[in-house]
């Protein structure tokens, strides 16, 4: 009999994340009532400096991250965006600029493309200019977005149009799809508003009826067929009418991390809404350590934290139990099963809430403003 081999223990830790979102600033000239930023927005003086963002790019590349998304707020308010884009390109990171498109002129856009920007995502509030400007709370914004799309084509950058949809713009969805084609977008994200941050605050003003949702789904499915080879569709349905939740962020702390303007590292952009989580800051710890061992990342990573019915559900490694922020927002318990799931004891209440709010007259928007919640 051979001697027993010593047990080899490997603690490789979690696989590296695919992508990081740099929320460079919460400043934004628009005031969208569905904005996913927190109600307590960071002011300019609290933002990380250029040297720190550059160091974090190095750390992201070391960690094995492949994509960096520059977002906000509005990332083009930062004068150092060029430095960050150039550094990401030097490191071989795929870079994406997520912008409202109203602050950037032709020269700056062409320069960013020369520096190595790989992709641009432009948000559109509606196809109707007047309603678009009303929703974004920024007069003349829609026209600026159309101009930017032309410069993106001129620069040869791939363009994705983000179209957040809700009860106050869904009737124009067909025109919004045509607009995305006319702008030369390769991809269109039709995303029913998610109810976190400002979206949660404005839920009653945004929630579509079930009939509106069904009509929107038909419009998207028909356009997907008609525009095959022209436009790729991403379609995000509203959780409140779903039977099963989405795998929010591809699962908590599995693929993605989010760095807030002041340097806090979050598993998702709304995670600060959950009390009891401790967020490390890139000013204090390297990104790799935060990814591996931060309390906020470990709290809902994997499946050990799950209650029933998730714990014994065969979907648990597909949707990872849905969204923790939504569970907290609806039930007051971030470790509860996401109420978007029909197996959750809270699902009926969620659907009833959506039905009731969507049939009431829409209240006025509470526009997103720093210090304005
Ligand atoms: S959702 Fe609107 S307000 Fe929020 S960051 Fe984007 S453009 Fe600005
Ligand atoms: S019970 Fe949990 S794991 Fe199963 S489908 Fe619902 S949310 Fe997903």
Give an overview in words.
This protein is 34% helix and 12% strand. Helix 1 packs parallel to helix 2 (81-91) and helix 3 (106-115) runs parallel beside helix 5. The longest helix has 17 residues, at 210-226. It has helices at 50-63, 81-91, 106-115, 129-136, 141-155, 173-182, 197-201, 203-206, 210-226, 287-293, 295-299, 324-331, 347-359, and strands at 19-23, 67-71, 94-99, 119-123, 159-165, 187-192, 232-236, 256-259, 265-266. The radius of gyration is 21 Å and the shape is globular. Strand 2 (67-71), helix 2 (81-91) and strand 3 form a beta-alpha-beta unit. Bound molecules: iron/sulfur cluster (SF4) (2 copies).
Quick overview of this protein structure:
With 373 residues, the chain is an alpha/beta fold. The chain is built from 13 helices and nine strands. The N terminus is likely disordered.
Task: Please outline the helices and strands.
Layout: E1 19-23, H1 50-63, E2 67-71, H2 81-91, E3 94-99, H3 106-115, E4 119-123, H4 129-136, H5 141-155, E5 159-165, H6 173-182, E6 187-192, H7 197-201, H8 203-206, H9 210-226, E7 232-236, E8 256-259, E9 265-266, H10 287-293, H11 295-299, H12 324-331, H13 347-359
Parallel strand pairs: 1-2, 1-8, 2-3, 3-4, 4-5, 5-6, 6-7
Antiparallel strand pairs: 8-9
The structure holds iron/sulfur cluster (2 copies).
């Amino acid at each position: 009999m051979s001697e027993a081999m010593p047990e080899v223990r490997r603690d490789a830790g979690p696989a590296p994340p695919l992508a990081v979102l740099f929320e460079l600033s919460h400043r934004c000239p628009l005031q969208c009532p569905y904005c996913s930023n927190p109600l307590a927005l960071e002011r300019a003086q609290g933002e990380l400096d250029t040297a720190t963002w550059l160091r974090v790019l190095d750390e992201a590349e070391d960690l094995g991250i492949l994509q960096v998304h520059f977002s906000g707020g509005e990332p083009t308010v930062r004068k150092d965006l060029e430095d960050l884009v150039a550094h990401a390109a030097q490191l071989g990171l795929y870079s994406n600029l997520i912008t409202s498109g109203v602050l950037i002129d032709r020269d700056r856009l062409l320069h960013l493309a020369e520096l190595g920007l790989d992709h641009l995502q432009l948000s559109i509030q509606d196809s109707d200019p007047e309603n678009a400007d009303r929703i974004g709370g920024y007069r003349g914004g829609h026209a600026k977005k159309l101009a930017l799309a032309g410069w993106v084509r001129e620069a040869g950058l791939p363009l994705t149009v983000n179209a957040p949809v809700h009860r106050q713009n869904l009737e124009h969805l067909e025109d919004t799809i045509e607009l995305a084609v006319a702008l030369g977008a390769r991809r269109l994200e039709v995303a029913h508003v998610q109810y976190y941050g400002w979206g949660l605050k404005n839920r009653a003003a945004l929630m579509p009826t079930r009939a509106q949702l069904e009509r929107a789904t038909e419009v998207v499915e028909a356009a997907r067929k008609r525009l095959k080879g022209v436009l790729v569709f991403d379609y995000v349905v509203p959780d409140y009418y779903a039977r099963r939740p989405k795998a929010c962020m591809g699962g908590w702390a599995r693929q993605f991390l989010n760095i807030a303007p002041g340097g806090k590292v979050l598993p998702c952009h709304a995670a600060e809404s959950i009390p009891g989580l401790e967020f490390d800051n890139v000013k204090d710890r390297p990104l790799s350590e935060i990814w591996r061992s931060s309390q906020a990342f470990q709290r809902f990573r994997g499946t050990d934290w799950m209650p029933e019915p998730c714990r014994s559900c065969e979907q648990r490694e597909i949707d990872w139990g849905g969204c923790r922020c939504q569970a907290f927002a609806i039930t007051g318990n971030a470790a509860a099963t996401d109420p978007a799931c029909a197996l959750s004891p809270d699902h009926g209440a969620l659907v009833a809430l959506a039905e009731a709010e969507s049939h009431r007259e829409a209240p006025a928007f509470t526009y997103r403003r720093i210090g304005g919640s």
